[in-house]
Write a structure and sequence with these properties.
503 residues; Dipeptide-binding Protein, domain 1; 13 helices; globular
């Protein structure tokens, strides 16, 4: 089994440091250890968890990306590069991964990372049940003091993407209150609904972070963002709206990229109305994407017709956004077939988190567009924690506007949530044909076959109108010109370590 062709070696340790230097955005040009550099970054909601294996919100994951690392981690080009591991080998049938631990990696508490920590972390991540792909792990074992074997129940060439799962100390019994990772920043403190404090980890194994002290300030009131940026209490805010961008002075550099998410009107398919595909299709025919994008983001963004965004290049199917052209008469016809008309109009509530202005604005435009077909869509704004508990976790809603991100570089991160029995299937979508197509994707070893199966999943979601797919929003990042080095990723993350003081 260990012959020349039995294993494929990747991520050679000899090239690790040069790769990671690029991934961290050239931080070597920033201040060195011992400087007094600080930055305050506004974030739209408090962190819902400090435990990396139980956090669900994209807004939490994107900032704790700087605190925790897996065996591998993504870089800004979309490649997976070594982190806690220095390299790995994968069997030809993609059912066994063997990782070599990097020498000299330490946790933020000063202890050295061991194979026992890795085994514990991967098993804990699996047991948490937050990632369905981890359920395919058959065993995690320490091969010796420097190597860990991860065996899968079924072959999975994409499984490496899931090994960004955080490696944490086995000895830490309270990761929720005492988060300890291996990343370029370590956790210092948290004041609920106010801020989270991080500081540079001076014993980081890789390129050190460019800024020493970071305050993540909770900016739940979208109306205060511009004032706080201009007033100096906040130095950076990712994802300002197009309107906010225009209000900012020349003290700020505006970086423009993609949010890398699937914004949609997500529908609770268990409700009486949305269990009917004709109703779902009617709403799709009501949608005028250009009208939404013109209002929300000055026409910028990428139209979507299913649950994959453009950064997943080989899977992305732009033609699906044309499946339901704006046609109010067709919408009325479908609604009538479903039993709705002027005397009995379709009425439902769109629940939106108030701290995401783009989603609130989108809901308002959708409500107006639906009204043209006689649909009455009321908007209910709620605080983020309420949205998380009632909509995402409790599934106690009718419709919501939100952006769903990919937590890994695998398309399965976006598509697995629509499998009928998936724990994160917050839309309660059920379709045996979809389940079969997704299973085909998971069983495929050949990349061409897997790609086609993923694309089949996309077509099913679009043709069945599982949700009203809108766009991948543009991302406008406002950064005070005292700083530089911001990097966009093809994932929903904020690489704070790449920032540095401007010359």
């Amino acid at each position: 089994m260990k012959g020349r062709n039995a294993f494929r070696r990747a991520l050679l340790p000899a090239i690790v440091m040069s790769i990671l230097a690029a991934a961290l955005g050239g931080c070597a040009g920033g201040k060195t250890a011992g400087d007094s550099s600080t930055i305050t970054i506004g974030i739209p909601q408090d962190l819902e968890s400090l435990d990396p294996h139980y956090m669900t919100a994209a807004g939490t994951k994107e900032v704790l990306f700087n605190v925790f690392e897996g065996l591998v981690k993504p870089d800004q080009t979309g490649d997976l590069v070594p982190a806690v591991a220095s390299g790995y080998e994968m069997s030809e049938d993609a059912s066994l991964y063997t990782f070599t631990l990097r020498d000299g990696v330490r946790f933020h508490d000063g202890s050295a990372v061991t194979v026992d920590d890795v085994v514990y972390s991967i098993q804990r991540c699996k047991d948490a049940g937050m990632n369905s792909a981890m359920e395919e792990i058959a065993s995690v074992t320490a091969k010796d003091d420097h190597h860990v074997d991860i065996a899968l129940n079924t072959h999975d060439a994409d499984f490496l993407c899931n090994l960004t799962c955080a490696i944490i100390p086995k000895a830490n019994k309270n990761p929720e209150t005492n988060p300890v990772g291996t990343g370029p920043y370590r956790y210092v403190s948290r004041s609920p609904q106010e801020n989270v404090i991080l500081t540079r980890f001076e014993d980081y194994w890789g390129t050190p972070a460019g800024i020493r002290d970071v305050t993540l300030k909770i900016e739940a009131n979208a109306d205060a963002i511009v004032m706080d940026l201009e007033g100096g209490s906040v130095d950076m805010f990712a994802r300002v709206t197009s309107a906010q961008k225009e209000q900012l002075s020349d003290k700020f550099t505006i970086y423009t990229g993609a949010m890398n998410l699937v914004q949609a009107l997500y529908l609770n398919n268990k409700t009486d109305a949305f269990s009917d595909p004709n109703v779902r299709k009617a709403l799709c025919y009501c949608l005028d994407r250009k009208g939404v994008m013109d209002f929300v983001s000055d026409g910028e963004g990428s139209p979507l017709g299913s649950s994959i965004y453009p950064s997943f290049t080989k899977y992305f199917m732009p033609e699906l956004s044309s499946l339901y052209p704006n046609n109010v008469d067709k919408a009325k016809e479908l609604l009538k077939e479903a039993g709705y008309d002027e005397t009995n109009p379709l009425t439902f509530t769109i629940t939106v988190a108030s701290n995401y202005q783009q989603h609130v604005d989108t809901a308002q435009v959708l409500s107006e567009q639906f009204a043209k077909a006689g649909v009455k869509a009321q908007i209910q704004t709620v605080e983020w924690n309420t949205w998380l508990s009632e909509v995402y976790t409790g599934r106690n809603y009718e419709a919501t506007v939100v952006g769903v991100d990919a937590s890994t570089l695998s398309a399965s991160a976006l598509l697995s949530r629509f499998v009928s029995d998936a724990g994160n299937n917050f839309t309660n979508y059920t379709n045996p044909e979809y389940d079969k197509a997704y299973a085909e994707a998971m069983a495929a070893i050949d990349d061409t076959a897997r790609t086609e199966a993923y694309r089949k999943c996309e077509r099913i979601l679009a043709e069945d109108a599982a949700n009203v797919y809108i766009q991948d929003l543009p991302c406008f990042v406002a950064l005070n010109k005292r700083y530089t080095g911001y990097q966009f990723y093809p994932l929903y993350v904020q690489d704070i370590a790449s920032l540095k003081l401007a010359d």
